[in-house]
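Private note to self, pasted from the team thread so I don't lose it. Backbone tokens:
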């Protein structure tokens, strides 16, 4: 048994890299649905269908625990997956909750009632589907009182990152930050609500300015997952086994791009 990590494309490799570093003895299977990426422009029903199909593929690989390292899937599909679809012997986790727990200074897994928190003005940068779902605001309301969230749908940014067009990506980040600041001139914190966005974290920080605390997901998800596995040892996978990478896209192309992302050789096999 291994832990599955799923993303619609390559952005989830930021989470994979962080969890691999945090838990070097844990086995992981990474699945990228590159054929259907990006998810950020799809409706909730389509995202649910694509996500559940990929989760079932990870179950076939022996992954009883699957992490949705995709904010769009977490936002549009996770609640329905957890409440209506996943069997009792399996677990599917998202990436929003660890981020919110950090933002609100909670311990991992703290489900106590909502309370007032220090940060009151939050900028959320995410895909159009994630923004439309309002999943971040819903999860935040379970844990904090009176936080004002202003969302910015970052159209085109995932495509630019997947295509390796960093000049365009840089320009898009600055444009989206400018648009957000017209709605919320002085955010205290900014959420990078897509696992692709950590690749551009320095550009976000520069555009937002030094007074804005930027929360990126990869390390937070890794810390939260490590804690979860300590609390749920039945979900711990094989020790010191080889990690596996799977794609619904062209394995040669995806492997080349993933190698650029991780700055080390990565070989995907077809789903």
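Design output:
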């Amino acid at each position: 048994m291994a832990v599955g990590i799923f993303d619609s494309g390559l952005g989830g490799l930021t989470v994979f890299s962080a969890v691999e570093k945090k838990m070097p003895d844990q086995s992981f299977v990474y699945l990228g649905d590159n054929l259907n990426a990006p998810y950020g422009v799809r409706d909730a029903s389509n995202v649910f269908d694509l996500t559940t199909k990929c989760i079932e593929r990870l179950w076939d690989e022996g992954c009883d625990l699957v992490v949705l390292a995709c904010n769009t899937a977490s936002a549009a599909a996770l609640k329905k997956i957890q409440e209506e679809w996943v069997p009792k012997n399996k677990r599917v986790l998202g990436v929003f909750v660890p981020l919110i727990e950090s933002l609100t200074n909670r311990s991992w897994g703290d489900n106590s009632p909502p309370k007032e928190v220090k940060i009151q003005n939050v900028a959320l940068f995410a895909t159009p589907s994630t923004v439309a779902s309002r999943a971040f605001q819903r999860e935040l309301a379970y844990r904090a009182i009176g936080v004002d969230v202003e969302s910015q749908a970052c159209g085109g940014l995932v495509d630019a990152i997947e295509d390796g067009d960093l000049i365009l990506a840089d320009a898009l980040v600055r444009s989206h930050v400018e648009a957000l600041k017209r709605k919320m001139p002085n955010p205290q914190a900014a959420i990078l609500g897509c696992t692709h966005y950590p690749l551009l974290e320095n550009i976000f920080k520069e555009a937002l300015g030094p007074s804005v605390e930027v929360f990126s997901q990869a390390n937070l998800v890794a810390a939260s997952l490590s804690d979860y596995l300590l609390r749920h040892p039945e979900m711990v996978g094989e020790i010191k086994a080889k990690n596996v990478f799977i794609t619904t896209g062209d394995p040669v192309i995806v492997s080349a791009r993933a190698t650029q992302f991780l700055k080390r050789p990565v070989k995907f096999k077809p789903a």
